[in-house]
């Protein structure tokens, strides 16, 4: 083993270091990603960049040589890909799974590079790297030309707001440095990317493995007179001039250490602000003036895009996290319905009608896709009709949120126009969205405030509204129990209504089939109807298989607290199939009916229903008694609470 | 006309944004304070993020009982000076079993006294988010990690299935028992850290500066004999040499470098001509291939 604690030379005199640091301070930063198809040499290129800019230390080089012998794919040469493929699984499989961030600097600039995976299945990790980049290096294997993943990555980069592209035609050595190959690829890519809105596309022929035209001008390509990659990266201007845009300050955190101080902390998304400036609260329209810009080192005279500051206002206006302080002259849109581009990440497809959590930089609400307008074919940009968006697909959707959000179109502001979608149950980040524009109808429809309210309507009927949501397999006994339950309630003077799966499908939901997407929509419509009926003061009994917990949860969230009563009619599959009152199981098991719950479509049993009815060996009367008992207990509890609260 | 933000201003703003996001979105965050230079920067940024308030979370030091004495003294001094709430956790099971780096090797010692200790502390207090000072330029599995890095209820990191992380929109949602490790310094490099320490005059443990110290040469490393628990092997002698440390951890596992850099400027100057990475002085990363990823999956920071 060599001695590693070699005397490090502190040659640079103190003045020299100061000068050096002063120069560092003035450097700008460029964030870029490498993308493209598998085996186009992304990781190799980054290894080359790091090596050429002297970012690889001796101990790392020694480890790399060791690893290259063990896992390398480049014969006796150093396999630079192993420098960035940092996960065990990546080295074993010889592929890139997730994005790696690497750092290097030249005398002119500092760089953060995101090395992103080429496999289609890891597109979400490519999107992660692209979302914070200003420039994309799209790699192409000179032998392969423009591939499907080249197109997909270019489209995603474009959607995510990247305006500058380097078209790196790599492995040019393997086609004998042939200009005609290069020209043809440049032509192909130019054709394809015409409508992607890139401001610059700079094609460079290179060999990442041997370093041609990376930082060293190639001697084998006299015909190429453009810049080397490094020359271009050092000089390309990507400034978005966020500071020139109208002032936007998404409030992230309300800082209130004591009664005398109330500051709004956040990062200025665009524009700038100074003490004395008028600002408007986006969602309420209330205005105030900036009194102080507080920072640790003392108050500031100005805060501009990118700075994380704390604002103190002149007046006590109501502002919480998720709201936005904005310029009075140019306000953002505030709406609960808008159109957006969506990139879908999750293996469970996006379904219109299903409820997701929508998050902007600081705001959060629930959202549903009301209309999937079309899917974009990544090969030819064709707009294709679609009922769902599968993993790695891109589409245009109308979105409806439970509460309005403040935003700008993404094309105008990359910070205030973006959002992510989160699955309500797994909490996975399932999609990313770029807002196009608000929908007119959202601006025009305002909630009517009615004097005759829900409470008054229910009181007149001398009851409390409730939605009994029966869920269970076909043939589990839902309808039988529901009918008997309604009879008993009717007998005691209650006002009721039954929404039955089969009956509703004959009318309101006649246009829906049995795919997952249609099942979700089926439930959404019924839940909305049930809500209106509860609003009218009724006790509603919904009798639907409703196999997915996400939709039952959505239904629950539509209703007021305590009004939604999930009733799990729990009959084993074998018993349901034995009873088979409509002969459906026999046909489904024969393969005559597709997407039949319990046979070839899943049923997600409720984990914590309000009422769990295990039907085996019990009569319908016994179960209805249990339901009535539950209802009476609830009403008594609420009456007590009400009279207590009224004193 | 406003001038564009400098490189360090951009990094600082990003880190402050991350701190605030956690404070706003989590019920019980904590900052892991390891007393090193990155922790010093992290602490400084936390103070800035919430000024004029104090950071709304405690600082936790997982003490392996083998840290340099100067680190412990510095830790207590900073807690008093800045007035933050300092929690110290020691794995008492490990102390009882006398787990130490000499008899059990760096792997077992680190696992018991650091990784397991950290899990114990997180479970004990029920923290749902924990800040760490890791940087992506340190090591190649760290280069792959998200800024908001999800951990399941067993504190396990699943590197093959990380949540997408788009723009500055962080997914802060977790189920009960799960947690997020948060790395505000993800995009900082070692040079950025030193430059920032210099610019902001941030106090750091004196061990980073060159000084005559009693060291033993062992396994190709210079180990500072910080107390009597380190027994000399046959042939070993303690020599006073002019040394300093590029990183700090458990003293028996941290190699010193010979250096006369006794000012921040000299340290930066030295760094600019360095030919080895900073983690090279750490025994624990070299034990086996992919060892950092393995430790991280088990819950190490």
Automatic annotation (TrEMBL), chain B:
Catalyzed reactions: sulfate + ATP + H(+) = adenosine 5'-phosphosulfate + diphosphate
Enzyme Commission designation: 2.7.7.4
EC supergroup of this enzyme: transferase
Entries under InterPro entries matching the protein: PAPS_reduct_dom, Rossmann-like_a/b/a_fold, SO4_adenylTrfase_ssu, Sulfate_adenylyltrnsfr_sub2
Recorded metabolic or biological pathway in which this protein acts: Sulfur metabolism; hydrogen sulfide biosynthesis; sulfite from sulfate: step 1/3
Record bears the keyword Kinase: no
UniProt keyword terms in alphabetical order: ATP-binding, Nucleotide-binding, Nucleotidyltransferase, Transferase
UniProt record similarity statement: Belongs to the PAPS reductase family. CysD subfamily.
Task performed by this protein: With CysN forms the ATP sulfurylase (ATPS) that catalyzes the adenylation of sulfate producing adenosine 5'-phosphosulfate (APS) and diphosphate, the first enzymatic step in sulfur assimilation pathway. APS synthesis involves the formation of a high-energy phosphoric-sulfuric acid anhydride bond driven by GTP hydrolysis by CysN coupled to ATP hydrolysis by CysD.
Protein name: Sulfate adenylyltransferase subunit 2
Organism this protein belongs to: Mesorhizobium cantuariense
Gene name as annotated: cysD
């Amino acid at each position: 083993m060599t001695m590693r604690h070699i005397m490090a030379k502190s040659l640079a005199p103190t003045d020299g270091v100061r000068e050096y640091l002063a120069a560092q301070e003035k450097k700008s930063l460029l964030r870029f990603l490498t993308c493209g198809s598998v085996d186009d040499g992304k990781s190799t290129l980054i290894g080359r960049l790091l090596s050429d800019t002297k970012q690889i230390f001796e101990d790392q080089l020694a480890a790399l040589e060791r690893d290259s012998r063990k896992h390398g794919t480049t014969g006796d040469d150093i396999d630079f890909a192993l420098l960035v493929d940092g996960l065990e699984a990546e080295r074993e499989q010889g592929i890139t799974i997730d994005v790696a961030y690497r750092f290097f600097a030249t005398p002119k600039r500092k760089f953060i590079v995101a090395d992103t995976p080429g496999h289609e299945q890891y597109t979400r990790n490519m999107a992660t790297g692209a979302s914070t980049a200003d420039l994309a290096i799209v790699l192409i294997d000179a032998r392969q030309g423009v591939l499907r993943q080249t197109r997909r990555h270019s489209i995603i980069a474009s959607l995510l707001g990247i305006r500058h592209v380097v078209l790196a035609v790599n492995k040019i050595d393997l086609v004998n440095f042939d200009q005609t190959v290069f020209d043809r690829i440049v032509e192909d890519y130019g054709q394809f990317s015409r409508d992607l809105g890139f401001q610059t596309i700079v094609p460079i022929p290179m060999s990442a493995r041997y370093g041609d035209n990376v930082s060293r001008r190639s001697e084998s390509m006299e015909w190429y007179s453009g810049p080397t990659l490094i020359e271009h990266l050092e000089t390309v201007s990507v400034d978005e001039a966020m500071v020139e845009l109208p002032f936007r300050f998404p409030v992230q955190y309300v800082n209130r250490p004591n009664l005398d101080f109330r500051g709004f902390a956040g990062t200025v998304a665009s524009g700038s602000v100074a003490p004395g400036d008028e600002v408007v609260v986006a969602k309420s329209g209330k205005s105030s003036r900036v009194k102080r810009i507080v920072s640790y080192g003392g108050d500031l005279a100005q805060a501009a895009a990118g700075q994380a500051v704390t604002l103190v206002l002149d007046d006590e206006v109501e502002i919480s996290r998720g709201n936005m302080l904005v310029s009075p002259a140019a306000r953002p849109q505030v709406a609960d319905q808008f159109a957006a581009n969506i990139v879908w990440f999750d293996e469970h497809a996006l379904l219109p009608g299903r409820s997701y959590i929508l998050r902007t930089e600081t705001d959060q609400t629930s959202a549903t896709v009301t209309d999937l307008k079309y899917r974009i074919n990544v090969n030819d940009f064709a707009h294709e009709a679609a009922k769902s968006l599968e993993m790695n697909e891109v589409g245009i959707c109308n979105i409806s949120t439970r509460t309005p959000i403040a935003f700008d179109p993404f094309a105008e502001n990359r910070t205030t126009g973006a959002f992510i979608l989160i699955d309500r149950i797994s909490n996975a980040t399932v999609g990313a969205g770029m807002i196009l524009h608000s929908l007119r109808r959202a601006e025009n429809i305002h909630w009517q405030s009615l004097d005759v309210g829900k409470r008054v309507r229910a009181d007149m009927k001398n009851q409390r509204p409730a939605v009994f949501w029966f869920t269970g397999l076909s043939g589990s006994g839902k309808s039988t129990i529901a009918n008997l339950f309604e009879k008993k309630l009717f007998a005691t003077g209650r006002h009721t209504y039954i929404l039955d799966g089969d009956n509703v499908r004959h009318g309101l939901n006649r246009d829906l089939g049995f795919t997952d997407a249609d099942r979700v929509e089926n439930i959404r419509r019924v839940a909305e109807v049930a809500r209106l009926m509860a609003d009218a003061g009724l006790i509603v009994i919904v009798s639907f298989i409703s196999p997915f917990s996400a939709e039952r949860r959505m239904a629950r969230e539509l209703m007021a607290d305590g009004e939604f009563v999930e009733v799990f009619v729990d009959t084993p599959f074998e018993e349901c199939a034995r009873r088979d009152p409509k002969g459906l199981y026999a046909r489904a098991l024969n393969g005559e009916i597709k997407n039949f719950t319990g046979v070839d479509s899943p049923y997600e049993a409720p984990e914590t229903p309000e009422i769990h009815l295990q039907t085996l060996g019990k009569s319908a009367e016994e179960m209805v008694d249990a339901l009535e008992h539950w209802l009476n207990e609830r009403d008594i509890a609420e009456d007590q609470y009400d009279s207590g609260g009224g004193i | 006309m406003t001038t564009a933000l400098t490189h360090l201003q951009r990094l600082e703003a990003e880190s402050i944004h991350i701190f605030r996001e956690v404070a706003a979105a989590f019920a019980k965050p904590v900052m892991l304070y390891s007393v090193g230079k990155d922790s010093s920067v992290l602490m400084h940024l936390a103070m800035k993020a919430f000024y004029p308030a104090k950071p709304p979370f405690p600082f936790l030091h997982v003490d392996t009982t083998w840290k340099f004495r100067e680190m412990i003294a510095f830790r207590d001094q900073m807690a008093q000076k800045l007035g933050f709430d300092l929690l110290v956790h020691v794995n008492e099971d490990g102390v009882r079993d006398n787990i130490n780096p000499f008899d059990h090797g760096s792997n077992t010692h680190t696992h018991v006294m650091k990784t397991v200790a950290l899990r114990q502390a997180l479970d004990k207090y029920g923290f749902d988010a924990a800040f760490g000072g890791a940087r992506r330029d340190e090591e190649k599995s760290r280069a792959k990690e998200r800024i908001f890095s999800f951990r399941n209820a067993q504190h396990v990191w699943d590197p093959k299935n990380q949540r997408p992380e788009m723009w500055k929109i962080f997914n802060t949602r977790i189920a009960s028992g799960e947690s997020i490790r948060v790395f505000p310094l993800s995009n900082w490099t070692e040079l950025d850290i030193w430059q920032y320490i210099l610019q902001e005059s941030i106090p750091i443990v004196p061990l980073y500066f060159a000084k005559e110290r009693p060291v033993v040469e062992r396994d190709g490393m210079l180990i500072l004999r910080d107390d009597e628990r380190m027994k000399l092997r046959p042939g070993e002698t303690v020599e006073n040499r002019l040394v300093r440390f590029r990183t700090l951890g458990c003293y028996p596992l941290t190699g010193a470098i010979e250096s006369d850099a006794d000012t921040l400027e000299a340290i930066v100057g030295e760094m600019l001509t360095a030919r080895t990475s900073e983690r090279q002085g750490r025994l624990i990363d070299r034990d086996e291939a992919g060892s950092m990823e393995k430790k991280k999956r088990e819950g190490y920071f």
